[in-house]
Each structure stands twice: as structure tokens, then as C-alpha cells.
Specification:
Elements (H helix, E strand, L loop, with lengths): L10 H13 L1 E2 L1 H7 L8 H13 L3 E6 L2 E6 L3 H17 L3 H9 L6 H25 L1
Antiparallel strand pairs: 1-3, 2-3
Length: 136
């Protein structure tokens, strides 16, 4: 029985998506050339991975001459949010609170990060209060 395909990104897929997000649109050869020398994959590996990304709905292609040109159709922020939702669902029972407690409980949060988190929480509280007022 074939394995069900994950909509999350592997490390190789994420590496190619980062290049596509940065470069816009490019061919497989462009992707191979843009990879750091110590992380460079073979042309066929990049082609296979980009086709997987296309089957997952992350990229699309059009033909220019004899080459296919690939473009990201999922924005980086959208992909990031999807991955976070996947982690929250898989490891934290869909509880953002449990995720935050785990992040804060590891003892590695700096004062700057805490200040930034407090500001984000204040913005979320203001947005929730605004939504509540609009409902009433």
C-alpha cells in the first residue's frame, strides 16, 4: 500500500522553496546553481524534489522554450503557518497554550524574546476584544 503523502515540507523541499521564494521563478538548473556548494544536490534530485513540491501544490510550472520554469504558489508565511498548525496538532493536541508553555519552559527564552511575546499577546488580546465588540 503506498504511503500517504505529507503536506509538510522535508528539509530538501524547504531548501528549494527558500530558493524559489528568494528568486521568484527559475528552472531546475537555476535552482541547482543557486544552491550553496556544500549543499548542492544533483540535477535529477532537484527535479524529483520540485516535482514532489508541485504534486503537493507548493509550486507550478510553465514552459519557456525547452525548459520548465517553476514558481512558488504558496507564500512563505502561509507555509510557515501550515507547519506550525501541523506541529500544534501533532504534538500539542491543537493547544496553542501547550505549545507556548513548552516553548517558555525550556529555559532558553531571552528577555528580548519575552518582551516580543508580551507585545504579540497584547496585540492578540486587542484583536480578540475588537472581534468581540463587533459581534455584540
Amino acid at each position: 500500500m503506498p504511503r500517504t503523502r505529507s503536506n509538510t515540507l522535508t528539509e530538501a523541499e524547504l531548501s528549494l522553496m527558500r530558493l524559489l521564494w528568494r528568486m521568484g521563478q527559475c528552472s531546475v538548473q537555476d535552482l541547482v546553481s543557486a544552491m550553496p556548494e556544500n549543499e548542492r544536490l544533483a540535477y535529477t534530485s532537484v527535479l524529483t524534489t520540485i516535482r514532489i513540491l508541485e504534486s503537493k501544490g507548493y509550486v507550478e510550472h510553465h514552459q519557456e522554450g525547452r525548459a520548465f520554469v517553476y514558481t512558488a504558489v504558496v507564500a512563505e508565511n502561509t507555509a510557515r503557518q501550515s507547519e506550525v498548525k501541523h506541529v500544534i496538532s501533532r504534538f500539542f493536541g491543537n493547544s496553542r497554550e501547550r505549545l507556548m508553555v513548552a516553548l517558555l519552559g525550556d529555559g532558553e527564552v531571552s528577555a528580548e524574546e519575552l518582551a516580543s511575546l508580551k507585545k504579540a499577546i497584547a496585540r492578540a488580546e486587542a484583536a480578540a476584544a475588537n472581534d468581540q465588540q463587533e459581534e455584540n
